[in-house]
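Homework-ish question, so no full write-ups if that breaks the rules, but can someone show me the predicted structure for this set?
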Amino acid sequence: MYQKAYGIIETLAPLHVGATAGEESGNLNLIFRDQFTQTGIIPGSSIRGRFRSEMRRDLKGSENEWYGAPAETGESDSTTESIVKFEYASLLWLPVFCPGQPVVWVSSPKLLKRYQRIVGGELKDAKIPTKYTGSSALKPLNVEGKKKLFFNFGFLELKETTNLKAWFPSGEELPAVIVGDDEIGMIHDMALYRQSRVRLKDDEKRVDGGGFFNTEALPEGTIMVFPIAIRETDSKTPWKPFGEKKQSGEIYLGGLESIGFGNCQITIKGEGVAA
Amino acid sequence: MPADDYVPLMFQAQVEGRSQIQRLIPSQKADQQAYDWAKQWQKGCDKNNVPQFESHIQTRKYQFTWRMVTNSGQDAGVIRPVIGERGWAYFPGSSMKGAFLRACRQLCPADEVLLFCGGKDKDGELHPGMLRFHGGYPNDAEWLDNSLVDVVHPQEDWQSKNQGNHSAFIQISLHQPTFVFGISSSKTLTSEQWELVWKVWRTALEQGIGSRVSAGYGQIATHSGNKLVGFSLSGEGPASKLIDGQEEFRPNLFKAALRGHTRRLFNGITDEATADRITKLLWGGIGRGEDAIVGLLGISFNAPNLELEEWQSPVHRNNVVPIYETGDAVLDVLLMKSDLTSEQQDELKQFIIRLMKFAMLLGGFGKSWRRAYHPHFFPAYKRQLIGCHWEFTKRSYPLYIPFGEDLAAITKFLDTFHDKGKELSWLQKLEPQEKLTPGIREAWHQSNVQVWGRLARDKKDSLAIRWLHEPYQGAKSIKHSELTGWSSRNDLQPKTKIGRIWHRLYPRFHRTQNSDGRPIWKPTTQYAELLTIFPDDSTVSDDFLDFLGRKPYGFKQLWGNQ
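A: Not a homework solution, just the prediction itself:
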């Protein structure tokens, strides 16, 4: 039997989890994307790796028990099954800069559906809002009697507004809008934190030839969700990744830490988590 | 109104008919698209929520003495800042790391650089650094106003070549912002290590951050490691105006003046291409590939007591212009590269000192720099505000040329200035000058310029200042001639013409010794009244030089062939 839990990630800084070679080309450092919605994801392995390294620092020795022992060279059967299993984190709400708001959080029915499945409980029977539904915290433009929003490069006409509070893990209803599953990828591409970077010469402020590359990252304020399964064990101590009585903590995910990327707030919720 | 009219200018392409923020249409005054652009930013930015760093991040606050800009590279043809969280101006963490790394390499041993910033170790293995650079945000929303719209107005060709074309461009930069920078560490650092980290960051800031640092952008008040020489000085004169009429003292005028004089000097020593090259090597220049040169020199100006006021003509009440009084200020000339030998640095320092002495001897800085300050030396003239006046202040008194009654010391200085210029040949081989390049108006060469001077008793004893407004002898006048130039005249073509004469009153200082033999500098009420003339073949010019040749009121030629 497994106990179910889930994690909510809120990015406190841009988050870059790089795509593998093959997906990225030339000097563009892409983030890893879900193949259907084309929105950013964090692989379960990246999340597990970070949890493991935090535990290796704080509770050295117990990381192999919780997250599985790695294979030893020359020894068969040295690996063990992990107790805590992580699935990939998907996007729940993506902040998009929008003049006058100034930020609108965007999601799509498919992303909300995954969130619904992971959370279960009260949300289990909730009706997933249809596309072009806005939250009640939104203040749309009035363009000739129609409610419109300006997103980076285009307009979106709202079909209805409703209370979307239930769909925010924090319980706080933010200015938000639902767009189609076929559109979220495009909006996501425009809303990413993008930076063109140049490498300057060591001894003078001039571009070092060829030192030009582009980085993309999920912007600050992105909300993501990932499922966790915890295998039942004989152990009396429950899994407490953030220490006693803490369900939430700051953790660094992804790369480019040295230029301020990856700082995230992670909150663990669900039945498998000791309160 | 179609929906796309609601698209903010920031999101429109930089093409004709859409957004064109770099474009300045002089006839439209403050009605420029750049102001609409800035207003939309003001409206869109979440002003009330100042970006805060997380609690584990250490922060420090620094104020910039003038403007600061980090080019976002977002829009073609215009320099504008990076926009970060919720519309706030932002200095990126990656830029911060780059600047930090450069300073760290100067201050710390290699293993510490590796510890802080990461990189390859001796065995070629890559290590991550433990510092995280979170960038910087302004500490309040004061930067977010119309002062964002900045003008760039290159005048090199117009001032020193043959009145070549010149036009102003718009750039968006932050005026005197205070930034909070954040650094955190993945490992716990001791308080001594943190002190070192912030010391390195301060050193990085002292070299200027962002764009246009050599012209005084992105500078804080102190410069410890990269200061070549500092000058204490104060000045008064007409202040610059931004497009919307807002007055501003713009420290980039120092670089422009020193660069201009550098060009004048070398145009008198070598051929045009070499003079261009040396000017670029010293002060930087743009171009493609290797033609883009980071200059050896930059400036930073700090005037904590600077005041801007308005001057109103008592005769023409509508004639109101902004004026500045810098108070006791410091102009630092900075070394922008660190690979010079100490001999080269010393030569460069001596060169800059001579260049600055020259600028202070014969002209001024900024608007109307070719004329003496009329409110001081010709108070009866009330129609326009003309000229500027700059003096060294106490710590730089020793830079005054102490001259006697005969002004011979000035001649000697000008000889040295010209001769010593050739010693910078380590920068670039000097091609011998065959004859002066035509088209260069103000080449500093014996055959092209004449300096005339006399001793003036006091402020009121300036004679030449009147010759710019009244006949100098009988009906003979140089007013509004090719020699003096003119400005904003609708009846003349061109409307504004740069003259061929500079007029300056240079304070006289005595050098004496105190009881223990140390030199002390004593100001006097006297001035050297100096006229610098680049003669042309016109009758006005010939007549005026004939007149001076008769040594009126003690005028005599100090430099140049007759």
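Now go work out the reasoning yourself. Hint: The interface with chain A takes residues 1, 3-4, 6-8, 10-11, 40, 43-46, 54, 56, 73, 85-87, 92-94, 96-98, 102, 105, 117-118, 128-129, 131-135, 182, 186, 213, 292, 294, 336-339 of chain B (CB under 8 Å).
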